[in-house]
Specification:
Largest sheet: none
Structural class: mainly alpha
Number of helices: 19
Radius of gyration: 21 Å
Strand content: under 5%
Order of helices and strands: HHHHHHHHHHHHHHHHHHH
Distance between the termini: 33 Å
Mean pLDDT: 85
């Protein structure tokens, strides 16, 4: 089949997914399965072969990251409910001077979004943004923008959130490299993005009458649970998995080969250590039944996350099975010798899926599955291909994205205000990440 034929069926499958989710109100997992069936059948695969590919794509991705994601969700849930997440945020803001308080709350959003999903991070920090705005005598968009930009950056680029965690599995490179790249690029670009966003606000970018509804329904933050951990203890479940995962990468660079290091740096063991630490620090605040209840809530949430993530892997596997990657490689000619084309191809595919389907998970994982077949033999390190796909996955979040509505509704914004906050924040993250990727491609 020609590339135009495959692209036509890809467009049809995207429409099927959109109709399933937006009109028929099916869960995104079901929509992705429908889209995968249409894609496979339309491109000449038998229905049985398509179904087998859907199952294999789901299983292969889950084998690599499923347990790590589940453990990460439990870790985040425990940290939230024992009050550890609030302690981290409030301590950072309290220790910062007024001059740096906005960056401090942004830093809190970045840290919390590593184990806790973006939506929950924003909900935790929303009352604090209001209090900080009053304290600094600054309009609310400053603090909301800081949290939105930084939390989205960490959620997009730093494992163990599903997209960057899947990147290492799909593109076959060391997870420690993804962790180092995500933390470094994410933290720096968060600071740059916040700085530019604040400058825009200083120069009248925000119009209160047009961008805010005037109705902000946020109560006072609930008191911290009795027995909430101190700042150092609350940080422990965040730091332990990071240290364990990076340990293997650093030891390889130093030429140290120890089986214990390999064991500890395994993504499952690293997340297990962090999750056990979260149990230990949460035990005083939640007690026995509280711990069980918190873990049960986390398992409910992780079920949805795992299904959507796995179904994204299924959709990507079906697209790859059609030979799309090979046709793209042939059509572009010598793509493996041109890192710059690789970077922009991955980014462009992810932007397409992001704008059409709304889900950054689907956009990033699907585009990475396609690029895994295109990038064999490339001279650029696969982490930069991953970063370009992740950048496309965060690029343009709008009204078909749940994160957009969390920020817009909780902040009392109009649709236009949401676009000026959540959408623009994602564009900043994508832009700066792509600068890093392009620079890497030019020197590769």
């Amino acid at each position: 089949m020609t590339i135009m034929g495959i692209m036509t069926w890809l467009l049809i499958s995207i429409i099927v997914i959109m109709v399933s989710i937006l009109i028929l109100k099916f869960n995104p997992t079901i929509g992705l399965i429908f889209g995968s069936l249409v894609m496979g059948w339309g491109c000449g695969m038998s229905l049985l072969e398509t179904v087998n590919t859907i199952g294999a794509g789901f299983g292969n991705l889950m084998a690599g990251i499923g347990l790590a994601i589940g453990l990460g969700v439990i870790l985040g849930q425990l940290l939230e409910e024992c009050g550890g997440a609030r302690v981290i945020a409030e301590t950072l803001v309290r220790k910062a001077s007024d001059k740096y308080a906005l960056y401090a709350i942004g830093g809190a959003g970045f840290l919390l979004s590593i184990p806790v999903f973006f939506d929950i991070t924003f909900i935790i920090l929303a009352p604090l943004t209001v209090e900080l705005s009053k304290q600094l005598k600054k309009p609310l968009p400053y603090a909301v923008g800081a949290v939105t930009i930084s939390a989205a950056a960490a959620h997009t680029l730093v494992p163990p959130t599903p997209n960057p965690l899947a990147a290492a599995s799909i593109l076959h490179f060391d997870l420690g490299i993804m962790m180092i790249a995500g933390l470094t690029v994410g933290s720096i670009l968060s600071f740059l993005s916040m700085k530019i966003y604040f400058k825009l606000l200083d120069h009248g970018f925000w119009n209160k009458e047009e961008d805010e509804t005037g109705v902000l329904q946020l109560g006072d933050p609930a008191p911290l649970p009795k027995g909430a951990p101190c700042f150092g203890a609350a940080l422990l479940p965040l730091l332990l998995p990071v240290v364990c995962i990076i340990l293997s990468t650093v030891s390889d660079m130093l030429g140290i080969k120890l089986q214990l290091i390999t064991f500890l740096s395994n993504r499952i063991i690293a997340m297990l250590i962090g999750t056990v630490a979260a149990y230990v620090i949460a035990v005083r605040a939640l007690k026995g039944k509280g711990l069980e209840k918190s873990a049960s809530k986390a398992l409910e949430a992780s079920g949805v996350v795992l299904l959507i993530t796995g179904a994204s892997g299924s959709f990507g596997a079906v697209i790859s099975k059609t030979g799309f990657a090979d046709i793209v490689k042939t059509s572009l000619g010598g793509i493996t010798a041109s890192p710059l084309i690789l970077i922009f191809t991955g980014f462009g595919l992810a932007v397409l899926f992001r704008v059409a389907l709304g889900s950054g998970t689907v956009a990033s994982i699907t585009s990475m599955n396609i690029m895994a077949g295109v990038s064999a033999g490339a001279t650029i390190h696969p982490v930069f291909i991953a970063l370009s796909c992740l950048a496309g996955g965060i690029s343009i979040g709008h009204v078909n994205d749940s994160g957009y509505w969390v920020v817009t509704n909780m902040s009392g914004y109009t649709i236009k205000g949401g676009l000026k906050s959540y959408t623009l924040g994602g564009i900043f993250i994508a832009f700066f990440t792509m600068i890093v990727c392009v620079a890497a491609a030019l020197v590769a």
